[in-house]
C-alpha cells in the first residue's frame, strides 16, 4: 500500500509507504517462558527499507523532540545508503547509549511524535533504526570510543552510573578531564541493569556501552556508597567538580494493611533480585525470591509492566495487574502494554487494592480490592478514580508487587552540607545547567526531577556536562602531590 507525497517536504519519491516496516519478535507463547529479547531487531534489508521512509526534512522536528538532539535525518540517511558505521558515528556525536536508547526510549512521545510523516501516516521507526545501527556496530568489532582531547589536568567525580552519570562521564572524558564514577551497587549501569529486565534490555548491551567509557580512561568504582563511605564535601576536596546522578530509588508503598507480610515486594526490590542478582538464571544463581503461582502487581507504569512480565517468566501461573484507572489512562508505553497482553497478563482495571491478606504463617494469601469509578479530570489530565461503595472483592494470590513509583533517597543530601533540596528531598538544580547550591557540584536525572525516562536523564546529563566543562575551563589546575 502506498500513500501520497507529503506536500512541501524534500523527497525524490513519488509515493510514501504509510506504515513502519514490521520488526520481527519472538512469538508470545515462547517468549513468556524465557528471558531472551522480545524484539529481534531489523535485518540490513529491513533497516534500509524503513530508512527509505524518512523525508529528510530541511527543518527536522524529530531532532527537537529528542532530549539529547541526535542528528536523526543524517544517521537515517547513512542507514539508507548502507553505511552503518557512519550511522553509528553520527548518533554517537550526541548519544553515548544508542543500543540502550533504541530499545527502551519512549520514541512515540518524543522524536517520533514530532516526525512530519507521522502527521498523515505512521512516523519513521527512529528508535528501531537507532537500535539497528548500534547493533551492527556491536556485531562488527564493538562500539568505538570517540577521540579524546588532550588531558586538562582537572578531576571530576560522578556519583551514580545510571544514564545521567554515564552521559556526564562520557562528555567530560571526551573533553580531556579525568573522571571517576562512584557506584553504590556491585555492577555499573544503575537502573539500566537493576531495573530493566533482560528481555527488554540485555545486560551485555549495557556493559558493551560502558566498556567505551573505560576505553576513554573513565574509572568506575563499584560498592562505593556516597553518603556512607564518603560525603560530597569530602569528594570535593579531591576533585574540581562533582555531578550527582544517583537516581530516585527509594520505593513508595501504599500504607495499607498487610504490606509487611512475606511475599510482598516493592518493584525495585523484586526487579533488582531478578535482574542484577540474576534470579532469572536459576539454578545457576540461587538468588532468594518468592516465585508465586499467582502474583498481583499494583500499578500501571512501565515498571509495573516489567514486574508483571518478569513474574510470569520466573514461573507464575497467573499474573494480575491491578490498576485504579482504565486502559486509556494507563501510563505505560503502548508497546509494553501490548506485549503484556499478548503474553497473557490479566488486567484488573478500575480496581484499587485496600488490604493485603495473610495466612497463619504470615504469608500473603489474597488481596482485597475495591472497584473504582472514573470521574472528572484531575491535575494530571486523567479522570480521577472514586471508590464504588460496597464493591469490595478478593483475589487469591501468594505474591504482591507494589509498583507505584519511587522517591529520592535522602542519603546523599543528608551527607552534604549546604546542598538544597525540596520538600520531597529531590536536589534543587538549575534546569539548563544542573548547578546546585554548592559551587562546583551539579546534579541531574531522577534525583532532581523524580522518576522519568532514560533519555531525559541523559539530556539532563548532557546539559550539566556542558556547564561543567565551561566551569572547569575557568579553574586553575591544582597542584596534586
Structure in words:
This protein has 481 residues and is of the alpha/beta class. It has 3 domains: 28-139, Fumarate Reductase Iron-sulfur Protein, Chain B, domain 2 (Orthogonal Bundle), CATH 1.10.1060; 155-249 and 408-474, FAD/NAD(P)-binding domain (3-Layer(bba) Sandwich); 253-404, FAD/NAD(P)-binding domain. Helices cover 31% and strands 16% of the residues. It has helices spanning 28-31, 44-51, 61-64, 72-80, 84-91, 98-104, 126-139, 163-174, 191-194, 203-215, 232-238, 267-275, 302-313, 334-342, 411-415, 446-449, 454-474, and strands at residues 155-159, 178-182, 219-221, 241-244, 250-251, 264-266, 294-298, 318-322, 346-348, 351-358, 364-377, 383-387, 393-396, 399-402, 406-407, 441-443. A 5-stranded parallel sheet has the order 3-2-1-4-16, sandwiched between helices. It has a 5-stranded parallel sheet with strand order 6-14-7-8-9. Helix 13 (302-313) links the parallel strand 7 (294-298) and strand 8. The N and C termini lie far apart (70 Å). The model is unreliable at 7-12 (pLDDT under 50).
Amino acid at each position: 500500500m502506498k500513500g501520497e507525497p507529503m506536500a512541501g517536504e524534500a523527497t525524490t519519491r513519488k509515493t510514501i509507504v504509510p506504515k513502519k516496516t514490521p520488526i520481527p519478535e519472538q512469538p508470545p507463547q515462547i517468549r513468556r517462558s524465557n528471558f531472551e529479547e522480545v524484539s529481534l531487531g531489523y535485518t540490513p534489508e529491513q533497516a534500509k527499507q524503513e530508512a527509505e521512509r524518512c523525508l529528510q526534512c530541511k527543518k527536522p522536528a524529530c531532532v527537537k523532540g529528542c532530549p539529547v538532539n541526535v542528528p536523526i535525518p543524517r544517521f537515517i540517511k547513512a542507514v539508507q545508503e548502507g553505511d552503518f558505521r557512519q550511522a553509528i558515528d553520527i548518533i554517537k556525536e550526541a548519544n553515548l547509549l544508542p543500543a540502550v536508547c533504541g530499545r527502551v526510549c519512549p520514541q512515540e512521545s518524543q522524536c517520533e511524535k514530532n516526525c512530519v510523516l507521522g502527521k498523515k501516516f505512521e512516523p519513521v521507526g527512529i528508535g528501531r533504526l537507532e537500535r539497528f545501527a548500534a547493533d551492527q556496530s556491536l556485531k562488527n568489532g564493538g562500539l568505538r570510543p570517540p577521540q579524546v582531547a588532550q588531558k586538562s589536568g582537572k578531576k571530576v567525580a560522578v556519583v551514580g552510573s545510571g544514564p545521567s552519570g554515564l552521559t556526564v562521564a562520557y562528555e567530560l572524558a571526551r573533553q580531556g578531564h579525568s573522571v571517576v564514577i562512584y557506584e553504590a551497587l556491585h555492577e555499573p549501569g544503575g537502573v539500566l541493569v537493576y531495573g530493566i529486565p533482560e528481555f527488554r534490555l540485555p545486560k551485555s548491551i549495557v556493559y558493551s556501552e560502558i566498556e567505551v567509557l573505560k576505553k576513554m580512561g573513565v574509572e568506575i568504582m563499584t560498592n562505593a556508597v556516597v553518603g556512607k563511605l564518603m560525603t560530597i564535601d569530602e569528594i570535593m576536596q579531591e576533585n574540581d567538580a562533582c555531578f550527582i546522578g544517583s537516581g530516585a530509588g527509594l520505593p513508595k508503598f501504599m500504607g495499607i494493611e498487610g504490606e509487611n507480610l512475606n511475599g510482598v515486594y516493592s518493584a525495585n526490590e523484586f526487579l533488582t533480585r531478578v535482574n542484577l542478582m540474576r534470579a532469572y538464571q536459576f539454578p545457576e544463581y540461587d538468588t532468594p525470591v518468592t516465585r508465586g503461582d499467582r502474583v498481583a502487581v499494583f500499578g500501571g507504569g512501565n515498571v509495573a509492566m516489567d514486574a508483571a512480565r518478569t513474574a510470569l517468566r520466573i514461573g507464575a501461573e497467573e499474573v494480575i495487574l491491578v490498576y485504579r484507572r482504565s486502559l486509556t489512562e494507563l501510563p505505560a508505553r503502548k508497546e509494553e502494554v501490548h506485549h503484556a497482553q499478548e503474553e497473557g497478563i490479566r488486567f484488573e482495571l478500575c480496581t484499587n487494592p485496600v488490604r493485603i491478606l495473610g495466612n497463619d504463617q504470615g504469608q500473603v494469601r489474597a488481596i482485597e480490592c475495591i472497584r473504582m469509578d472514573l470521574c472528572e479530570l484531575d491535575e494530571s489530565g486523567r479522570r480521577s478514580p472514586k471508590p464504588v461503595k460496597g464493591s469490595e472483592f478478593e483475589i487469591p494470590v501468594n505474591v504482591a508487587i507494589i509498583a507505584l513509583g519511587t522517591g529520592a533517597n535522602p542519603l546523599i543530601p543528608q551527607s552534604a552540607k549546604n546542598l538544597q533540596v525540596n520538600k520531597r528531598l529531590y536536589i534543587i538544580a538549575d534546569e539548563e545547567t544542573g548547578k546546585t547550591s554548592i559551587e562546583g557540584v551539579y546534579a541531574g536525572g531522577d534525583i532532581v526531577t523524580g522518576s522519568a525516562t532514560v533519555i531525559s536523564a541523559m539530556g539532563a546529563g548532557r546539559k550539566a556536562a556542558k556547564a561543567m566543562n565551561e566551569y572547569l575551563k575557568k579553574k586553575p589546575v591544582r597542584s596534586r602531590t
